[in-house]
Specification:
Elements lengths: L1 E2 L1 E4 L15 H14 L3 E5 L5 H13 L4 E7 L2 H11 L5 E8 L2 H8 L3 H15 L5 E7 L6 H13 L4 E6 L6 H13 L6 E6 L6 H11 L3 E4 L13 H10 L1 H4 L1 E2 L7 H12 L16 E2 L2 H9 L18 E2 L7 H10 L6 H11 L10 H9 L3
Parallel strand pairs: 1-10, 2-3, 2-9, 3-4, 4-5, 5-6, 6-7, 7-8, 8-9, 11-12
Helix pairs in contact: 1-2, 1-11, 2-3, 5-6, 7-8, 12-13
Length: about 375
């Protein structure tokens, strides 16, 4: 089985989401939690752009020991030297250098040709590779680039010292099939033994699907954020990608070191710090992820959890499932709630109780105390 490395960019790309930035002290707390979660690399900021980012990276080099710490940089000496200075000789220090690879970005942002774009890769990596233990390169807007030029850029980056080469779907443009084909073409034409990574944005809601397609195509590092926070519609959520690899390992044939039992706490922590509530219907960690309201579903999950749950709440560190009582609940669910409260009920009384429950309003749900209160009427 292939090992998939998780590169978490919550503290860099995630902090660029409007309203998501939080204090240095809280960022350190999140970084420590990411270490407990067993991410492989923490991209902790963009040192030249922010003193807080610089100070965070510098502080983490003293606080952490067994995780790769990455500093983000554009392809110029000032950025690269600031990143190296922030890393301060850390034994697992890494600089990620970004250059655009689409004609659109090269022409409109930098006023450069393709050949000048390749020179930018060569020059920046030549500066960085002597300053830190590891240098990686990320091709911005790769999903809208010319495939032949993209392959040239990947090979150039590897030749000039990049240990990891990352395909960035910067504006979430790629379709999963396109992602698979592009990554396969890069790998099949690749001349070096470097790690291929992927960084997907969620503008079309395809960040997770594209990340999975890249893994299936052979990518071995995935760049994600907790809760999917990031620029615009955000990034691929780490918790979703991690659980896909775990739940569908039969098909994916890969593994990671992520301790999924810490996902709920980690997501809650970032949600609190960013003041961004987690949607109830969010996969994995949403409040409804293990909630069952329909009578048919309640019956099925109580008979055998695998009927309607493809993972256990404990797998992600969540509380047990909830059986939610409303007008669509059935006898099995109501009886279960009563038994959980230590109350046995006869079939006749349960029938009476169900009659009253069926009269609840469409969006009205009642807890166990209210169910018990209803039952007392029939004693």
């Amino acid at each position: 089985m292939r090992e998939i490395s998780f590169f978490d960019t919550t503290l860099r790309d995630g902090q660029q989401a409007p309203g998501s930035a939080f204090s240095l002290e809280k960022r350190i707390e999140v970084a420590k939690q990411l270490c407990r979660l067993n991410v492989d690399t923490i991209e902790a900021g963009f040192p030249v752009a922010s003193k807080v980012d610089f100070d965070l990276i510098n502080a983490l080099t003293k606080e952490l020991h067994d995780v790769s710490i990455c500093a983000f940089s554009r392809a110029n000496r000032k950025d690269i030297e600031a990143a190296a200075s922030a890393l301060n000789g850390y034994k697992k220090g890494r600089i990620q250098i970004v250059t655009p690879v689409s004609d659109l970005h090269l022409r409109t942002r930098l006023g450069k040709s393709r050949s000048q774009g390749l020179n930018l890769i060569k020059e920046s990596l030549s500066i960085a590779k002597d300053l830190v233990p590891e240098v990686s390169w990320i091709g911005e807007d790769a999903s809208r680039s010319n495939q032949h030029y993209l392959i040239d850029a990947f090979n150039t980056a590897a030749e000039y010292g990049a240990n990891t080469l990352t395909y960035a779907d910067t504006v979430g443009y790629s379709l999963p099939g396109e992602m698979y084909e592009s990554i396969r073409k890069i790998i099949n034409s690749f001349e070096f033994e470097s790690v291929i990574g992927v960084h997907c944005h969620n503008d079309l809601g395809l960040a997770v699907a594209n990340t999975v397609s890249a893994i299936e195509a052979g990518a071995t590092e995935v760049q994600c954020t907790i809760n999917g926070i990031g620029e615009r519609a955000g990034n691929a959520p780490l918790e979703e990608v991690a659980m896909i690899l775990q739940v569908r390992k039969d098909k994916m044939n890969v593994f990671s070191n992520i301790d999924s039992r810490l996902l709920t706490h980690t997501c809650d922590l970032v949600s609190e710090f960013t003041n961004s509530p987690i949607a109830k219907n969010k996969p994995i960690v949403g409040g409804n992820a293990f909630a069952h309201c329909s009578g048919m579903h309640q019956h099925g999950v109580l008979k055998c959890s695998e009927n309607y749950e493809i993972m256990r709440p404990a797998d992600i560190g969540a509380k047990d499932r909830s059986i939610v009582i409303g007008k669509y609940s059935g006898k099995h669910g109501v009886r279960h709630v009563l038994e959980e409260s230590g109350v046995a009920v006869t079939d006749d009384k349960l029938d009476c109780l169900m009659g009253e429950i069926k009269l609840l309003r469409d969006n009205q749900y009642i807890d166990s105390e209210e169910v018990l209160s209803m039952l007392r009427k029939y004693e």
